[in-house]
């Protein structure tokens, strides 16, 4: 990652009539960085991406790409940008191969050996007409075209929707390759494990506002580790220790227990447990899903998605 600013979204607002789709969105993407953008249905992810792409104009705040205004300079910006939406619509009477070549031509790019390699990796039959393709195959066409281009910014909005696990893995490998070559990626995804594996920075959006941004490591202090422990003597005082939650003793002697502990209290809890002589200990660090659920557990009607 470099200090070069690729994308800068500050205080972004977007209203459709009386509906505030975006209230306060702040995003920054640097050179060679992969930024994960997650949130529930209707949170504003796709609207934010449309503003960044210059497809709609912001109502307030600003969005710049390569230090250019996303709305005013969208034509210039698109020359160095590749975009794959979550549901790709293609010309029905063209073949997949013709479509890939057309997309490349429209981007000022050419069909290369890399394109052929991608077609082979994704196992796409390029001789078939687009109208015969499944959703997954339509995604493959767009992904092959995007990964074939040599640009500085790649924007993926739910890109693996419809792909099988093997093709998801190929996507992840290709994103890692982009990062290794200093490219920047904005990835909007509902697959938390996908974001967790690939992204340097994660931004969580809810109800039109970015409510948390940082690396997964920097966010882990906000959630809890899962601990399974066996001690030689009873764990006296564990039930009263600060930061302990969901404590469950597995035997009457109180020498086997499972519980969750706030990340910033682990040191003090371990000091307490060593007094009972630890025999066996297993800790599981918090995941992105744990963090995400912490923000959304109070609203079960909202689901992770676009």
What's the architecture of the largest domain, going by CATH?
3-Layer(aba) Sandwich
Q: Fraction of residues in helices?
A: 25-40%
Tally of DSSP helical segments: 10
What would you report as the Rg, rounded to the nearest angstrom? 23 Å
- Identify the strand order in the major beta sheet: 6-7-8-3-9-10
Question: CATH homologous superfamily name of the largest domain?
Answer: P-loop containing nucleotide triphosphate hydrolases
Task: Label the structural class.
Answer: alpha/beta
Write down the CATH class of the largest domain. Answer: Alpha Beta
CATH topology description of the largest domain: Rossmann fold
Strand content: 25-35%
Mean pLDDT: 89
Distance between the termini: 27 Å
Cα shape:
elongated
- Poorly predicted parts: 298-306
Count of individual domains? 2
Give the total of beta strands. Answer: 14
Compressed to H and E, one letter per element, the order equals EEEHEEHEHHHEHEHEEHEEEHEH
Q: Mind describing the biggest β-sheet?
A: 6 strands, mixed
Describe what you observe in this structure:
Keywords: ATP-binding, Nucleotide-binding, Transport. This protein is of the alpha/beta class and 306 residues long. It has two domains: 5-219, Rossmann fold; 224-285, Alpha-Beta Plaits, CATH 3.30.70.120. Helix content is 30%, strand content 30%. The protein is built from ten helices and 14 strands. A six-stranded mixed beta sheet has the order 6-7-8-3-9-10, with helices on both faces. Strands 2-1-4-5 form a four-stranded antiparallel beta sheet. Mean pLDDT is 89; it is low at 298-306.
């Amino acid at each position: 990652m470099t200090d070069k600013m690729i994308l800068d979204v500050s205080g972004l607002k977007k209203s459709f009539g009386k509906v505030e789709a975006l209230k306060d969105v702040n995003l920054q993407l640097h050179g060679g960085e992969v930024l994960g953008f997650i949130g529930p249905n209707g949170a504003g992810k796709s609207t934010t991406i449309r503003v960044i792409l210059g497809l709609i104009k912001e109502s307030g705040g600003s969005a710049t790409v390569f230090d250019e205004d996303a709305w005013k300079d969208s034509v210039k910006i698109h020359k160095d940008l590749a975009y794959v939406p979550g549901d790709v619509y293609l010309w029905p009477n063209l073949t997949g191969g013709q479509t890939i070549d057309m997309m490349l031509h429209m981007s000022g790019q050419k069909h290369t050996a890399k394109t052929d390699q991608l077609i082979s990796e994704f196992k796409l039959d390029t001789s078939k007409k687009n109208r015969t393709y499944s959703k997954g195959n339509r995604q493959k066409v767009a992904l092959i075209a995007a990964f074939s281009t040599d640009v500085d910014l790649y924007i993926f909005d739910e890109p693996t929707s419809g792909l099988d696990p093997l093709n998801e893995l190929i996507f992840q490998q290709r994103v890692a390759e982009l990062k290794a070559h200093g490219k920047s990626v904005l990835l909007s995804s509902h697959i938390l494990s996908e974001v967790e594996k690939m992204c340097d920075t994660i931004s969580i959006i809810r109800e039109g506002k970015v409510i948390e941004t940082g690396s997964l490591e920097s966010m882990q202090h906000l959630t809890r580790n899962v601990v399974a422990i066996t001690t030689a003597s009873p764990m006296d005082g564990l039930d009263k220790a600060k930061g302990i939650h969901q404590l469950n003793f597995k035997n009457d002697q109180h020498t086997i227990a499972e519980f969750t502990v706030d990340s910033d209290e682990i040191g003090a809890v371990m000091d307490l447990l060593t007094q009972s002589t630890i025999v066996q200990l297993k800790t599981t660090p918090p995941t992105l899903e744990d963090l995400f659920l912490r923000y959304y557990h109070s609203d079960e009607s909202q689901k992770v998605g676009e």
